Amino acid sequence: MKDPYAVLGVSKDATDQEIKDAYRELARKYHPDNYADNPLSDLASEKMKEINDAYDEIMNGRRSGKGKKKAGGYANSNSAFPEVRSLISQGRYEQAQEVLDGVPVESRNAEWYFLNGTVLFRRGWFDQAYTSFATACRMEPGNPEYRDALNRAQAQSRGQYNPYNRSYGAAGGCNSCDVCQGLICADCCCECMGGDLISCC
Fold first, then answer.
1. Are 173 and 167 a contacting pair, CB within 8 Å?
2. Fold of domain 1-73
C-alpha cells in the first residue's frame, strides 16, 4: 500500500488538524457526487477509497500511540465533534465510535453523549442510544436537537418510530399492519357467518 501521508499530501510531522484539513480538501475534490454521469466516476471512487483508507490508517495509528502528534489532539473533546459528525454522515459508524472513545471521560459533555447516542441509534442499539440521549438532555435540557433525538429513541423502543412517516406515534394513526389485521378479522367474522369476505362485502 502507498504511504498514507503521501496519499494525503502531508508530511509525517503534520499535526492532526493539518491532516484533517488535507483530507477534507481531497474529499471535496474527489467525492463521487462530483462525478455523477461522468466517465471518470470509477477513478474518482477509487481515489476516494484510497483517501479514506489513508486517513483512517494515519488517525488510527496516532490514536493507538504510533507517531502520535499531540498538537491538534482530543484533549478538548469539542475538537473531535466535527470529525464525528462527518463520519456519521458518511455512514462510518465504527470510526466515529473510535473517535468518541478517544475522548477522555472527564471531557465528555452533552454533545459527546448526543453523538454517542446517534452512532448507537444508527447501528440499531436503541436502548443504549436512549440512555446516551437522556444523559445529553439532562446535561443540556434546553437543546432541541438532543430532545428530538431522545423522542425518536423513545418512539423506537415503543415500536412507534417510522423514519418515513412524519406522524409516527400520533394518536389514532394507522399503518399497513393495522389494515392487514382488520382484513383478517373481517374475513374470520364472515367465515363464522357461513360465507367469505367477498360474498359478505
1. yes
2. Helix Hairpins (1.10.287)
Asked if residue 60 has pLDDT above 50, the reply is yes
Question: What is the spatial distance between Cα 63 and Cα 102, in angstroms, rounded to a whole number?
Answer: 7
Distance separating alpha carbons of residues 49 and 78, to the nearest angstrom: 27
Mean pLDDT of the chain: 77
This prediction's pTM: 0.46
Encode burial over 39-62: b for 16+ CB neighbours within 10 A, e otherwise: eeeeebeebbebbbebbbbbbeeb
Q: What is the DSSP letter of 151?
A: H
Domain ranges of the chain: 1-73, 174-201
Going by pLDDT thresholds of 50, 70 and 90, the confidence category of residue 35 is confident
Report the SS3 class of residue 43: helix
Digit-coded pLDDT (tens) for 127-140: 888 999 999 999 99
